[in-house]
């Protein structure tokens, strides 16, 4: 990936400061596109290093009940691919927080893959993670190559054999997202105890930073994961709070209040 | 399996032309590779083939008859109509062919738990049946709406020892049941085999499921040659995901004189949200593991579907059907709810056979085209399942219509 980008610059700054990063996921359009913009700005103020912005899909097979419900609400409230890109464009006017678009293939495919890449870059997005686009399919279909300035974020799971890791990371950019448990997205009582070894295994194949997610919701869990990785991803725990306070005036402030200690925990490890 | 082996095969990674593939979250990718490897080994293993054939014969009742529907033929006054009687198979539909094959595979892979989605309940019953037969723990995901319209099958699955989990997301039918089964599989991938019920999903499912159902076409081809000493002119089968159709069509692919017609669910007509005919109102897209034709809006969100038949009420179609259509080898038409219901009644009253509402779509197409064909022409209709499960739903609808 040629030109300097906000994601790698952020990771460089974190490394220099000896910190682990914090990645926040929210579903765009839940409860409304305007609320998403306000929450995104609040996340930036809370010190979030990277925003993963979910483009909702009607059939999110890798997501648990919390994010499924958020997607359903977002679609019911009129979120579309183009309108999510508008949110990114608006956010970019006042924020340099890196944005990774997180979605499933069909909305992007129907939008037109190339058009989507062009418009996403133009709006100010920095990375793209398509949950149901494995590297093999991306490599075989010229139509699914993520280029043009968006960092292709790649996933590794606990079930990924080491032999496959090299293939996955070779076309990746930005960071590697290690999904720390078998299962769908959602909060968990305990974090996996194999994170350390798995991260070490992934490091044998790549120099990209490694972010770890799935199931993390408390500052204690965030700190524990931060000690073993380059960044911590929290999604469902934030989305659940957006669901609980969605209709309220002070939604953005409440989310900032919830996320700030998580960011602190990740940064201080 | 004596028929010629067609060259219609996907590439090494499961693409039929531009369709198919393996579009799944990373957690499942290696499980699909393990399944593919085991399937390819089993396919060439005489012990596997023998166990599969023995169970199909002694446990399921194969081969199924190819029945000359003399009264229906006279009633329509055209081509000679044969019915491939998959409705006579154990559990009442073709689905058991695939469930048996995948159960043997699951045991070979050391899995102790099987899961499945079901629409009409036929695949759920088939899976619950093989789970009982093989001693697997079994969970079936079924849309809450489908559980209501197919209550009889829910009771059957429960008697067979399966846990039936209602899925209330979205429109609470087959597509949502597949989503939920995939989520279960992502979570329990090491202990669990997902017995996907149609020729759909990520590679190797479309190929594997087709291979387990090709016995329908292999038998039908041999039987028609025995009875008529020639190949048929037309094959007709309903297409939800497309497993019974591809099973019948596949051994005839190289017989270019044989027309192949798949019949989709036209619901209340080709109106957005009121049908499930992907080749009528659909577009190219990617859903639940495969690139295929599907019903989605301009933003790529999957549209609502409707069919009187729970088994055809699905937004996407098997990738091999897309390919056969693209190369002009097979054609796809649709039958509406009303046409299927009329066919359901006709076959019951003229032949004494109550077809499943799914299969009634194929019968409806035969009723449409047979009168326009010559009496010396031959049609085989795949009667993929029996209609006992649909009797109360059909009675309710007919009662409403008569008021």
How is the secondary structure organized here?
The complex is a heterodimer of chains A (269) and B (403).
Chain A: H1 6-17, E1 21-27, H2 33-45, E2 50-54, H3 65-76, H4 81-92, E3 99-103, H5 105-111, H6 113-123, E4 127-130, H7 135-140, E5 151-152, E6 154-156, H8 162-170, E7 176-179, H9 195-203, E8 210-213, H10 219-226, E9 231-234, H11 236-245, H12 251-268
Parallel strand pairs in A: 1-2, 1-9, 2-3, 3-4, 4-5, 6-7, 7-8, 8-9
Chain B: E1 15-16, E2 19-23, H1 26-43, H2 46-59, E3 66-68, H3 70-76, E4 80-85, H4 95-108, E5 113-118, H5 122-134, E6 137-143, H6 144-149, H7 151-159, E7 163-167, H8 174-187, E8 192-194, H9 205-228, E9 234-238, H10 243-249, E10 259-267, H11 278-281, E11 283-287, E12 289-294, H12 319-326, E13 330-336, H13 337-351, H14 357-369, E14 378-383, H15 391-402
Parallel strand pairs in B: 4-14, 5-6, 5-8, 6-7, 9-10, 9-14, 10-13
Antiparallel strand pairs in B: 1-2, 2-12, 3-4, 11-12
Helix pairs in contact in B: 2-4, 3-13, 4-5, 4-9, 5-7, 9-10, 13-14
Question: Nutshell version of this structure?
Answer:
The complex is a heterodimer of chains A (269) and B (403). With 269 residues, chain A is an alpha/beta fold.
Structural features:
heterodimer; A: 269 residues; alpha/beta; 9 strands; B: alpha/beta; 6-stranded mixed beta sheet; 15 helices
Question: Could you explain how this protein is built, in words?
Answer:
The complex is a heterodimer of chains A (269) and B (403). Chain A has 269 residues and is of the alpha/beta class. Chain A is built from twelve helices and nine strands. Chain A has helices at residues 6-17, 33-45, 65-76, 81-92, 105-111, 113-123, 135-140, 162-170, 195-203, 219-226, 236-245, 251-268, and strands at 21-27, 50-54, 99-103, 127-130, 151-152, 154-156, 176-179, 210-213, 231-234. In chain A, strand 7 (176-179), helix 9 and strand 8 form a beta-alpha-beta unit. In chain A, helix 2 (33-45) packs parallel to helix 12 and helix 4 (81-92) runs parallel beside helix 6. The model of chain A has no long low-confidence stretch (mean pLDDT 94). In chain B, helix 4 runs parallel beside helix 5 (122-134). In chain B, 44% of the residues lie in helices and 19% in strands. By secondary structure, chain B is of the alpha/beta class. In chain B, strands 3-4-14-9-10-13 form a six-stranded mixed beta sheet, with helices on both faces. Chain B has a four-stranded antiparallel beta sheet with strand order 1-2-12-11. Chain B has a four-stranded parallel beta sheet with strand order 7-6-5-8, with helices on both faces. In chain B, a hairpin with a 1-residue loop joins strand 11 (283-287) and strand 12 (289-294). The model of chain B is unreliable at 1-6 (pLDDT under 50). The radius of gyration of chain B is 19 Å and the shape is globular. The A-B interface holds A 57-62, 64, 68, 72, 75, 80-81, 104-111, 131-134, 136-137, 140, 155-161, 164, 168, 179, 182-184 and B 13, 15, 21-31, 169-170, 175-176, 179, 182-183, 186-190, 283-289, 294, 296, 298-302.
